[in-house]
Write a structure and sequence with these properties.
The structure is a single chain. By secondary structure, the protein is mainly alpha-helical. It contains 8 helices and no strands. It has a domain of 45 residues.
Length: 173
């Protein structure tokens, strides 16, 4: 063990490591650490396969999950969300949302979306009772009513009336 300069006592391994780390940090810049980090990452990547990293990732995830409760994850998720929200404007989120939507739309067909919509609807229906849906319907109606004036409702009423008459005529033919 290294000797402590102040009183000739031996330093702990942790103390010696901390002091050595501080010295190296003072002698090298960020580029140096990025370069050696990249080299180390490449060496480790060549040494192990994908399954190895999946296994240790899973173990790490399980350990973390066992260590913390859901409130902890909600809290750090909230903080992360706020940090990201502060960093970017709404235009950024619209742009990435648009890209994500287009990518997803290109990847899956209409039947896929119908299937997941059906599953989501069934899951939601199983989870909540009729009172819940009445309550959110009431809130939605009040919000919409507060947002639009009477002219808006008259306009959509006229459009709806024309469509209904047109559909009734077609169905009777």
């Amino acid at each position: 063990m290294a000797k402590n300069k102040n009183n000739n006592q031996k330093m702990s391994r942790e103390e010696a490591g901390r002091k050595g780390g501080e010295t190296v940090s003072k002698n090298h810049d960020q580029d140096f650490f990025q370069e050696i980090g990249q080299k180390g990452g490449e060496a480790v990547s060549e040494k192990y396969d994908k399954e190895h990293f999946q296994e240790i990732g899973q173990k790490g995830g399980e350990t973390t999950s066992d260590k913390y409760d859901s409130e902890h994850f909600q809290e750090i998720g909230q903080k992360g969300g706020e940090t990201v929200s502060d960093k970017y404007d709404s235009e950024h989120f619209q742009e990435i949302g648009q890209k994500g939507g287009e990518t997803t739309s290109d990847k899956y067909d209409k039947e896929h979306f119908q299937e997941i919509g059906q599953k989501g609807g069934e899951t939601t229906s199983d989870k909540y009772d009729q009172e819940h849906f009445q309550e959110i319907g009431q809130k939605g109606g009040e919000t919409t009513s507060d947002k639009y004036d009477q002219d808006h409702y008259e306009e959509i009423g006229k459009k709806g009336g024309r469509n209904s008459r047109g559909n009734n005529n077609n169905s009777n033919s």
